[in-house]
Design a protein that fits this description.
Strand order of the largest sheet of chain A: 2-1-5-3-4
Strand order of the largest sheet of chain B: 4-5-10-6-7
Radius of gyration of chain B: 20 Å
Structural class of chain B: alpha+beta
CATH architecture of the largest domain in chain A: Roll
Number of helices of chain A: 6
CATH class of the largest domain in chain A: Alpha Beta
CATH superfamily of the largest domain in chain A: Beta-grasp domain
Radius of gyration of chain A: 15 Å
Largest interface: A-B, 39 and 37 residues
Largest sheet of chain B: 5 strands, antiparallel
CATH topology of the largest domain in chain B: Uridine Diphospho-n-acetylenolpyruvylglucosamine Reductase, domain 3
Oligomer: heterodimer
Number of strands of chain A: 5
CATH architecture of the largest domain in chain B: 2-Layer Sandwich
Number of helices of chain B: 13
CATH topology of the largest domain in chain A: Ubiquitin-like (UB roll)
Amino acid sequence: MKVKVRFRLNGASRTDEVEPNQTLCDYLHDAAGTTSVKKGCDTGECGACTVLLDDMPVTSCLVLAPQVDGGEVVTTEGLGTRSAPHPVQREFVEKDAVQCGYCIPGMIVTLSWIFEHAPSASDVEIKRLMSGNLCRCTGYLQQIEALKSARKRR
Amino acid sequence: MKSFQYLAPIPPFEYVAPRTLPDLFETLSGHGKELQVIAGGTDLMIALKERAAVPKIVVDLRCLRKELGGVSVEDGVLRIGALATFSQIESSPFIARYANALRQAAANVGTLQIRSIATLGGNLATASPAADSAPPLIALGATVTLLSKSGQRSLPVQSLFVGPKRNGLGAGEIVSSVEIQADADVRSAWTRSAVRNENVLSTVSVAVASTIRDGRFGPSRVALGAVAPTPILAEKASGAMTGGEATPHEAERVAALAAEDARPISDIRASASYRKRLVLVLTKRLILQIISESLTP
């Protein structure tokens, strides 16, 4: 039996009916149009599906779609736009912190959270906080540089 | 665009999110083994995807965060609600003050994304021998409170663990909170060894809690994770440490006893003999750390 959910997605109120056995990751990607949410491992290890749920980064593949009822979800689409990007999004472009791009939306969600909530995190602390976002192309240095550059320019 | 399914879809089930405790217990009492409670879901979601759990009904506790969440200190007791997340535990000033070992363990659970949603009650109810929250709680002498339709009961945290992934919850019973005596004189510390630093199961984890006065240990406990079918209180080590001299020599002796208390198996992460060696090294390291902290004003 479908479950009715009412929640906020990227600032807009949304009412929908979801299957109990659907993950939030599949729901956001397949039904809600937020295709930035990528399914990598589907077991909470890679971080490609990271979204903010009630202002905390979570792997949406480990959340059931009905669990968002009453909550607030932000994906990288909700952090900024092409003309007004989030500081972290802007610096990802500036620092060439992208190769294939699959990990990037989740990476940006996590780094935007670090930007807001751990503004003075050291390099070691940044690495600890982003350990749940795996990149299989380039590594992590450009992404960390992008975060630090965004911090400098805030 | 349809996502590719890496794992087969989760089999269908009914989902309910009770809004009050009476509603919750009503729902729980109507079902048996086909019911599964979900808190943070970081263990259960994997079990659902791997078919290790195939429930007919999933009962979500998320509407009961007020009743079952939060961290508080009242009448000298630190109370941690079952739905407190590891991120909340990691950043709580009460836990930093009264349960440092638990703060250290919480900060090392999984990843930021896991800590953001995984709960203390869920970690205990999953009953993994490697549950990172258990050794700190056992070392700190914590009790766990269980709630059901017929009332509540409390037991030592180690008694909730009955075997690998087997908890001592009765039918219709949930973990509601954990209680620790709030004593700022108690020093506690936790550490672990694992194959990498992040997002990994502990190969061995150790927690020690003690008070030090006039160069001697007061009541002390050493607790171990991932070296027995459940997290354990290292009884010989704890007994020997209590009342002993707070010296490096004594740390060595207690650590050797902790290795004797461990009953590890060999598995993909480490051999039994290596685990015993790790218990000795990590226990000694923690006791030395507690001694040196007691010497700095």
